[in-house]
Amino acid sequence: MSNEWPLWEVFIRGQHGLNHRHVGSLHAPDAELALRHARDVYTRRNEGVSIWVVPSAQITASAPSDKGPLFEPSNAKVYRHPTFYDIPDDVGHM
Amino acid sequence: MAPSLSDIMTPDAAALAKAAGGEGRAPLGATGAALDLFVGLTRLGDNTLILGHRVSEWCGHAPVLEEDIALANMALDLIGQTQLWLGLAAAVEGAGRDADALAFRRDVWDFRNLLLVERPNGDFGQTLMRQFLFDAWHQPMLAALEGSNDPRIAEIAAKAGKEVAYHVERSADLVIRLGDGTEESHRRMQAALNALWPYAGEMFLGDAVDARLAEAGVMPAPESLRAPWEATVSAVLAEATLQRPAGTFAHKGGKQGRHSEHLGHLLTQMQWLQRAYPDARW
């Protein structure tokens, strides 16, 4: 039964030079099969050149209820965005 | 007069069907070396077609979602290979048929797949064991075909070889895990091995067509694939703690169009739409 297998998070690098990106999760009895399942489930349309799998239980996540204290203080600190500089026209698009 | 049920498995069933207005046993356009090539290519394409269809029967029924998708991927790989092999077979035949016509408009006695691949799925263990026994043959077969002096064949084999390298890795790994798994999984894998073993030998039995194709450097002699197959199978069975059956008896005839009752049932499913609505397209 699938619910006896631990859950794994799957990260795929789309092409060389890009970061691995979280694409979803799956069940597998061990790391080797998790990798194989990830190949079968998440790279069917030529999505990747590299796969990472991580046991979901090993991920420490922030609590949704902490959203206020964690993230709202940065809302009001516009000076942290580099928008107060005059960019010379010669530089072009940044 | 249409052949009665009892005639279906008799050797002259094709002649009866022909007399009744069917195509019968009929590669229409090819003769000589081209006919040999047509037969050799349909053997390859029919193996991948029938096994691909069998594996696709698991779609939506596999024990877990991940295996379901893995099986569907493999079925699609095999059907994709079928399009190439039967497409080339149709071109070689030169009778105006295409891969679809060969897949959906031939009758059971014109199929040349191994009896192994038409075996019913059974339980998951039987499906996996059938796949492993086939993959362990398919891989060296494609490796040899990459060296074919017909560049069209070498090209298809090179493409298919990459897919099949993954198939054999997967099926060998699962045979080992389940063979050397729980008491129940071991029992099922051993039962599957015992049941399928008599169908493995046909992979290495050559006939006159095989001999001429091998002589011409187009396809390998079936006997030459036994050593690499044995090496893979022995190693995997040992690691899986499975007992290799002692028997050497081999069911044969699939390559010559003499099939078990299971293929006819499979074709009624697979060919139904094209039979009921000829030339229907998406």
Task: Describe the model.
The complex is a heterodimer of chains A (94) and B (282). Chain A is of the alpha+beta class. Chain A has a domain of 60 residues: Phenylacetic acid degradation B (Ubiquitin-like (UB roll), Roll). Helix content of chain A is 22%, strand content 22%. Chain A has two helices and three strands. In chain A, strand 1 and strand 2 form a beta hairpin. Chain A is flat. Chain B is mostly helical and 282 residues long. The longest helix of chain B has 29 residues. Chain B is globular, with a radius of gyration of 19 Å. Chains A and B meet through helix 1 of A and helix 3 of B.
Helices and strands in order:
The complex is a heterodimer of chains A (94) and B (282).
Chain A: E1 7-13, E2 20-27, H1 31-42, E3 50-55, H2 67-75
Antiparallel strand pairs in A: 1-2, 1-3
Chain B: H1 13-19, H2 32-56, H3 65-93, H4 99-105, H5 115-118, H6 124-145, H7 151-179, H8 183-196, H9 208-215, H10 226-239, H11 261-270, H12 272-276
Name the beta content range of chain B.
Answer: under 5%
Please compute the radius of gyration of chain A using only Cα atoms: 20 Å
| Largest interface (C-beta under 8 Å) | A-B, 13 and 9 residues
Can you tell me the overall shape of chain B? Answer: globular
CATH fold type of the domain at 2-61 in chain A: Ubiquitin-like (UB roll)
CATH class placement of the domain at 2-61 in chain A: Alpha Beta
For the biggest sheet of chain B, the summary is: none
Total domains of chain B, how many? 1
CATH architecture name of the domain at 2-61 in chain A: Roll
Please summarize what this structure is.
The complex is a heterodimer of chains A (94) and B (282). Chain A has helices at 31-42, 67-75, and strands at residues 7-13, 20-27, 50-55. Chain A has 94 residues and is α+β, with helices and mostly antiparallel strands.
